[in-house]
Design a protein that fits this description.
alpha/beta; six-stranded mixed sheet; 14 helices; 318 residues
Length: 318
Amino acid sequence: MSASRPRRVAVLVLDGAKPLDVGIPAQVFTTRASMPYEVRVCGAAPGPVTGGDGLSYHVAHGLAALAWADLVFLPGYRFPDRDTPPPAVLAALVAARERGARLAAISTGAFALAATGLLDGRRATTHWHYTRALAERYPRVRVDPNVLFVDEGGVLTSAGAASGIDLCLHILRGDLGVAAANHAARRLVAAPYRSGGQAQYVPRSVPEPLGERFAATREWALHRLGEPLGLDVLARHAAVSPRTFSRRFAEDTGYTPMQWVLRARVDRARELLERSGRGVEQIAAEVGLGTGANLRLHFQRVLGTSPSEYRRTFAGGE
């Protein structure tokens, strides 16, 4: 892709499309001077599309937008376990992926993506109400019901509508860096990084009184990343035993406490690399990773790059 042109985003509106699922990527990747994206909303053909929840749409573009786009969003739609998109739509999605475009499904849009075969053998998620149906209808897809989104490289899936925001912010972090994603989150009045899995939203027969307490501990830890944050320290703040904290934390977030702390430290280091002139050693100490060598090690493991290369990419050099 040429660095001089905006990244091209297509939002594919299928029959029965859910309004929030359509609106989230259209708004996050809105065409504006501060965002290097151009958005086109499209359908199987230009013209009216019957939506879900009492709304309908009039789209300006047809499937040619998928041949144009670098990133294609598939919003969720009604009756995904019953209805399959037309063959022309599926073929256009496959062609877009073969050309190198990323395909990102929100909620039940995962069914349309699965129908292409592009999720075969890959992890994916969808709204918790439909995870079993997705697994039964497409048994070659490795359905994970306990996450907000899954990034398998060129194909991405997310859970319910609100997790579409999490997915979009994740894509922004990869495209433009942490600072730009955080700016977009503030504009949306959304959490920049919501670490919980969607299992916390599945109805339970027994109330879960620890959820808010654990969320408060995560928020507390984010303001103390430069301090020792071992399991005992976190459990003490949450006023539970380390064993209970570790088990419940993993259920809520999909990470062990120490995995979560490491990712939070790496994300904070990313932001400092983008927005400050601090050296690697200083940043490593500030975010609690100790030394520059340790920071480089974790950057390579988590992001597949070095701090200096990351800074060159997202902050224009040292």
